[in-house]
Amino acid sequence: MSDLISPSAASVLIQASYFVAAFLFIIGLKRMSSPRTARGGILWAGAGMLVATVVTFAWPGMQNYVLMLAGIGVGGVLAWITGKRVAMTDMPQMIALYNGMGGGAAAAIAAVELYKGGEHPLALYVLAVLGGLIGAVSFSGSLIAFAKLQGLIKRSIRYGGQQVVNLVILVGTLAVGALIIFNHDAGATAVTLFFLLALALGLLMTLPIGGADMPVVISLYNALTGLAVAFEGFVLNNAAMIIAGTVVGAAGTLLTQLMARAMNRSLGNVLFSGFGETAAAGGGEVQGSMKPIEASDAAVMMAFAQKAIVVPGYGMAVAQAQHKIWELAQQLQSRGVKVKFAIHPVAGRMPGHMNVLLAEAGVPYDLIHDLEEINAEFDTADVALIIGANDVVNPAARSDRSSPIFGMPILNADKAKNVIVIKRGQGTGFSGIENALFYLDQTRMLYGDGQAVAGQLVHAVKSV
Fold first, then answer.
1. pTM score, two decimals?
2. Which entry of 391, 400, 414, 441 is annotated as an active-site residue?
3. How far apart (Å, rounded) are the C-alpha atoms in residues 205 and 162?
4. Which helix (H) or strand (E) holds 22?
5. Is residue 391 flagged as an active site residue?
6. How far is CA 379 from each of CA 247, 299, 309, rounded to the nearest angstrom?
7. CA distance 217 to 5
8. What gap in Å lies between CA 102 and CA 208, rounded to an integer?
9. Which of 320, 330, 333, 433 is nearest to 387 (CA)?
10. 395-440 pLDDT, tens per residue?
């Protein structure tokens, strides 16, 4: 295709198209910041990616069109099939997997350039090495995150001296990278060793992380992938990669900081110390006992309430109960009950997980509120209905200094006049931390599968 266009005309076309693509990326990202416009934002950003991909075929000297088309075809078909088949409960692991592919692609670009060797400006070697390191870490780390979320790795792997081992591997990776930077003819062996060490670093960094910390992990690796793509964009002198990578990296970094703040953990703590150990730790012993309730009694309590606040968590996603919960909310609204949904920033297994599920069920966006908006309203709520949430409503985060989640901002569900908790059994849940909310005087436990119990509540409310 590039043979049909003069080099000067092709250059103008490419740069103009990359400007358009960058504009579409930014508009798309902006629209993704709100649930109301997120779907349109995805289409805008997708259009930008289409423009950037198509114009690449006009790049001067471009060859291997058959391989490019084959790659686009295979990748497009796989993405279409998995996108159609993946359940909403499996969305976090799909995001982790796709994010890993982005990091792996950036690392592959770096590998190609480093294996070529030759004389290039020092800055390009520095960017290629940094992009390769970050991309490889994001690739292998995201694959481990996927395996954990998918249940292929069922526990966090920790051992004595783990941080020291990771530090040694990091130093070794940087040393080999420096050798490649300052000795352009270091050879294929050095480049191969560099990428093996970088892949091992991502793997070993992620293995000890508990599943309760996965929202931070996913957003962190998303930021790293964007950064790696931007670095490799400089190496290839590709404006679209630079802009897209920078935008994704910046957005991922801000989201990581938001997730860390929602767990009351600094970014430094997330990156360098005991990351994920809260999932295996326990707090102080909780006094009292859990008090069960029947669905019929819970329905009466909710049907005659003036205000009810629903707090969903990952358990709702597992039970696929979002549609029944929305049906319950509609029944309550028809009786004059004011219903709102409260979402904690780290509820679920990825940022925005609960928002996506509720949107899928048809819950209006103006009924969905984040922690800062809704917390003051629990004091006036007659009922707080908890389904599948645990740590994000645990009052021990305020009062128990021995608890691993002490200091974490939580939803003030314990301040409601009555609390109903839908739960499968009396276990501690995914994080392994006992929840003091379940033992309070105003709390009643409604045991059973989330979808089945929600269905019982719908039927019981109709009968009241």
1. 0.80
2. 391
3. 9
4. helix 7-31
5. yes
6. 40, 21, 11
7. 45
8. 23
9. 320
10. 988 888 877 778 888 999 999 999 999 988 666 555 567 888 999 9
